[in-house]
Amino acid sequence: MSRRPPQPFRWSSVDSLLKARQAHAQIVVLDQNHRHPQNLLLSKLVDLRCPLDYSSAVFRRIVLPDDFSYSSMIRALVIAGEPRKSVSLYMELLLLGGGGGAAAPKPSHLAYPFVLKAASALSMVELGRQVHAQICKLGFHGDLFVGNSLIDMYCKCSLMEDARKMFDGMPNRDQVSWNSIISGYASCGRTSCSLQLFDEMPASGNVVCWTAIANGLGREGRISDMLVFFRRMLLSGDGAAPNAATMVSLLAACSSSCNWPAGRWVSSFIDVNAVPVNVMVTTALVDMHCRCGALTEARRRFDEAPQKNLATWNAMMTGYVRGGRPESAVNLFSHMTATSLAPNQITLVNLLSAFASMGALERGKEAHVELARSGADVNVFLSTALVDMYAKCGEIALACLVFVKAPRKDLGLWNAMVTGLAAHGLAAEALTVFSQMSSAGAAPNEVTFVGILSACSHAGLVDPGRENFRKMRKVYGLKPDLEHYACMVDLLGRAGHVEEALAMVEDMEMEPDFVIWGSLLNACRIHHEIELAEKISKAVVFSSSKVANLGCSVLLSNIFASAGMWAEVARVRRLMKETGERKVSGCSWMEAEGAMHRFIVEDTAHDASSELYVTLNTSLVDGRGEHGGKI
């Protein structure tokens, strides 16, 4: 019986890697190793996003590859995230076309869109311009697909004048052309131009245009305009329903501006209209609620999410750390380790920040040891978090060790070291690091000068403090804020230059806060400036912040008491009572059964408070019996 020959197949039926391999095998069996079937196979492999090494092997086995072969392989490299290799292959094609005669392959209109995509991914503007010139030379500039790719490349390189020139000169435009130019203007902070073009479009806008403009308005901080435009989208009747990308853009804008009313409206819109919520929308919702201070609602969203990825966990952890609940961040991390997710550097930075806030030195050391044992790359962000954690936990020597060993130092790491040394009263060392920072070419920012001025304040270095405060403005062009003035007032006041400190406060461009008044009052207490304290008391008494005034009120009361001004003491204390001023309770943490617990004085909010008080009272009784009344 004769064996039946392999049956011919249709390329349209090849819809998986397995079928592509079968097709490849059939090509080999049928001895069809000439260019046409190999080209079809390569194109199909690229369409199916098959492994790059497989596509490369097929390409390199094509005898005399043509422009279609090269175009397919360039496309494969760009899709696989290898823009440099795609550019190299394009250069190879140019060399072949330039020296191989009439039959040699030359770039076609199929290759150029992906070469341009590679150029924009690499921010290679000059390459993009050279490719544009080559396109014009070969006569492909009128091709719609190539023209759209040129607009996209110029937009992504922020060359909007070139993009607009290309757009205006196109003989034909489609929706992609309009999407590209409108999105480009919006992403470059020129949303007004986007809106103008949007209104000029011959057809109704699609969801891409609507989302791009809403995103642009949000990035510019025009939250009200963003919501108005979004409502316009809903009422347009052109079928452009908001998708996940739209909702993520709206939520991100509300999050970055901490605009809780707008964020709550978007959140309610999602719930009421049953907008499909994927993991990106969930993460954006959690992040928005956290940044706006709604941690309870953020946790509810987090717990109810059907899907969570690492970004979702990180958003919730970051929210807890920023929101002053480090113990919740640590507990959340413990829950995350029970899943299949592995922490990334953002997770670890959050964890170290939580340990820093809690003063949990041993836990921080354990995390550092585990990090070293795992062989993970300790980048500049982790180095900064480690320096900050050790400094805040009192181990400034270990902070210095991490700093010295860091392979690369950015501004954040320099600042962490300067502020850490300042907090430990090591002013000379802080100034030395600041000098090294300047020598390394790192330009200081406002945070740097808070550390430097704080160091001078703690050490009583009046002249260096004055000089650095002057440099901040005159040399680095930085505008002092309340923290910088607070450091200077504290420095001058402690050194006895109370009148100079008061003059500085009176010359401030912003309203002084309670910290500045408190520093000035403390100087009055130290140097017995009773009359000046009376003058300041008027500003303190009529301040709008009740909790903030507590320290100032206590200082005033003590100053008046030391001077025997009992009527003034009574007035201050009466005001404290009327406004309900009371000390903010301190707290402490402890770990039990794998979870972190937070306690305050006379705490009744903890879930197990009743059992804890019973146990504590029992321990007190037992302690008296065994130790004669002492615990």
Give an account of the 3D structure.
This protein is an all-alpha fold and 631 residues long. The protein has a domain at 587-627. The chain is built from 34 helices and two strands. The protein has helices at 17-29, 35-47, 52-60, 67-79, 83-99, 112-121, 125-138, 144-156, 160-168, 175-187, 191-200, 207-219, 223-235, 244-256, 260-272, 279-291, 295-304, 310-322, 326-337, 345-358, 361-374, 380-392, 396-405, 411-423, 427-439, 446-459, 462-474, 482-494, 498-506, 514-527, 530-541, 546-562, 566-579, 609-627, and strands spanning 587-592, 595-600. It has a two-stranded antiparallel sheet. Strand 1 (587-592) and strand 2 form a beta hairpin. The N and C termini lie far apart (99 Å). Keywords: Repeat. PPR repeats lie at residues 143-173, 174-208, 309-343, 410-444. InterPro entries: E_motif (IPR046848), PPR_At4g14850-like_plant (IPR046960), PPR_rpt (IPR002885), TPR-like_helical_dom_sf (IPR011990). One of its GO terms (molecular function) is RNA binding.
Would you count the extended β strands for me? 2
The termini sit apart by: 99 Å
Broad shape: elongated
Task: Tell me the strand percentage band.
Answer: under 5%
Class by alpha and beta content: mainly alpha
Number of helices: 34
Radius of gyration: 33 Å
Q: Low-confidence parts, pLDDT < 50 over ≥5 residues?
A: 625-631
- List the strand order in the largest sheet: 1-2
Major β-sheet, in short? Answer: 2 strands, antiparallel
Helical fraction: 55-70%
Give the overall average pLDDT: 85
